[in-house]
């Protein structure tokens, strides 16, 4: 059982992840479900561990409770804060994305080499020469024995992460799923300007971010023929879920295939026009 101490070095990057953990203690009737907030910390690069045998031992409840404890800080979200939340304008000129043209380069290679690696293989070839930061270490922090969606549970989680970041001189960073992220953002926005919560980077989980992005594409492209095009790839009953960002893996594959087809048409038309001019 891990406590709340992290093995953080000078060049370490620490990312906390918190999510609900539900366990059915009575599997036959489904009653008595245990709801809690589970928290882990990903430390990159992690400390090197030596292999050793884990002894079998009987652990008492007192030893588990003494291993680590998270203070519970009561909190009630002020719903009126929703009208105060504003999104800052992103200054794209300050952001240099050196990999933004990799997709275009891979799509153009369709005409240059056959067979060629798929998208994942191309990205691996492009990135494999870079220095790897090292294998991350996953540290399991104590579980909060309260429903994860409870305001007090989320507030106690934020407090733990902020205190750990302050202890190690790091910027607090945490990832939630969509429901918990929205409540956490309300708590952070409702905090005073001097509160350490204001320094926190609260991120939406990757799957939920991707789902929201895919749902935006489905909404914006409604009536464009994208629905009928995806019907040629998947069953018609699956397409609405794809366009709403629900079936993530199928949606990604469907959009990549559609992108293939569009770029083939565009490139063939461009090559045809160039040959006519020549």
UniProtKB/TrEMBL annotation:
Domain of life from the UniProt record: Eukaryota
Name the record gives this protein: Uncharacterized protein
């Amino acid at each position: 059982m891990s406590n709340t101490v992290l093995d953080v070095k000078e060049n370490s990057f620490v990312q906390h992840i918190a999510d609900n953990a539900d366990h059915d203690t009575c599997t036959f009737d489904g009653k008595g479900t245990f709801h809690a907030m589970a928290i882990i910390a990903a430390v990159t690069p992690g400390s090197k561990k030596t292999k050793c045998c884990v002894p079998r031992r009987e652990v008492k409840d007192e030893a588990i409770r003494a291993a680590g404890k998270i203070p519970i800080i009561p909190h009630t979200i002020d719903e009126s804060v929703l009208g105060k939340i504003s999104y800052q304008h992103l200054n794209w000129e300050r952001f240099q994305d050196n990999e933004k043209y990799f997709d275009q380069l891979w799509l153009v290679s369709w005409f240059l080499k056959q067979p060629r690696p798929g998208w994942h293989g191309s990205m691996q070839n492009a990135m494999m020469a870079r220095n790897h930061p090292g294998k991350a270490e996953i540290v399991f922090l104590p579980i909060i024995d309260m429903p994860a969606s409870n305001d007090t549970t989320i507030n106690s989680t934020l407090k733990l992460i902020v205190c750990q970041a302050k202890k190690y001189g790091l910027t607090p960073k945490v990832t939630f799923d969509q429901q918990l992220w929205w409540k956490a953002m309300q708590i952070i926005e409702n905090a005073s300007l001097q509160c350490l919560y204001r320094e926190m980077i609260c991120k939406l989980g990757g799957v939920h971010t991707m789902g929201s992005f895919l749902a935006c594409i489905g909404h914006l492209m409604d009536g464009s023929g994208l629905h009928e095009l995806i019907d040629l790839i998947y069953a018609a009953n699956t397409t609405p879920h794809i366009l709403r960002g629900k079936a993530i893996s199928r949606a990604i594959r469907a959009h990549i295939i559609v992108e293939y087809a569009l770029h083939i048409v565009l490139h063939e038309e461009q090559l045809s026009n160039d040959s006519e001019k020549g």
